[in-house]
Amino acid sequence: MPLPVVDAHTHVVPARLPADAARDRRWPSVELSGDKAAVVIGGKVFRKIDSRSWDVGRRLADMEEDGTTMQVLSPMPELLSHWLPAHDAEHLADTINEHIAVMVSEAPRRFAGIGMACVQDVPRALAQLERIKALGLSGIEIGSHVDGVALGSEVLHPLYEAAEALDLCIFVHPLHPAGLERIGAGPEFAATAAFPLETALAAVSLLAAGVLEKFPKLRILLSHGGGALPWILPRLDYGWSLGGEMQKRMTRSPREIARGFFYDSILYDAPALQFMSSVVGSDRIVVGSDYPFTIRQKHPGAFARAALPDCPGVLADNAFAFLGRAFDLEMQHAAASDCHSVASRQA
Length: 347
Hints:
With 347 residues, the protein is of the alpha/beta class. Helices cover 44% and strands 16% of the residues.
């Protein structure tokens, strides 16, 4: 009997966003045409999407085809809008959080939700965390930097402290990566080449600032397998072993501290996933797909199962650990039951 599969990295876009000509020109909008739409930001089409981004029924059908028991829904990263004025960002976040909560309510055994907050204004964000908790969402997604502010910055530490206290998780996704001008190519290169580097920079910022040590119960998921982080940890470890500032900032080796992060499985290559597991531990890896976007990894559970056949916790248990105690054994058993039903129908 197959084990349940929780896809911890999927995205949503509401079919409609509130329009207000008086708001900042970078306020996102959705131009809907049947089951397709365009996300427009700053007067330009940022991405073309379809109803998979908002339609619960279509998502559930795709989940059955993929063998996925549960999806964790989070905003399309560009919607995080860390660059908007705080009052606009707060309103947008509340709107999207409510949309995600509604989607979860339509299929609560098949969806969990991660929202967003106006993290460019930490006091506002702290109040939003309370609302996110009240909506039944499991945490927030943040970009790899907050409009240029490093994730390790002390400005953000009250956010981490509050998330830890509220038992909310944090999903870190690359956003507006550094160095694009040195690639000199289109957005596909940003997603495939710059994103992994950007995630590694964000993770190292968190390591250097001691965030995981200051907030030991805080649960942080790094997208795309942590980007380049697993691959540079041996180099970081060697640098740390030499003493100096690295040992002043980190009381344990970078690799040991980095085992405190969670990592998704979106690496597209079994040997790469196996290497990551050897570095960070299989108990820190969750299934991810990047559904519903073009770059998504299809059949993510089957990929993880084949690459790590002796690590069943990767399929669901680790995701439940990341999501926190709100996903208790009753919810876990319900998800497992749904998965078994899906598998039986597919057989």
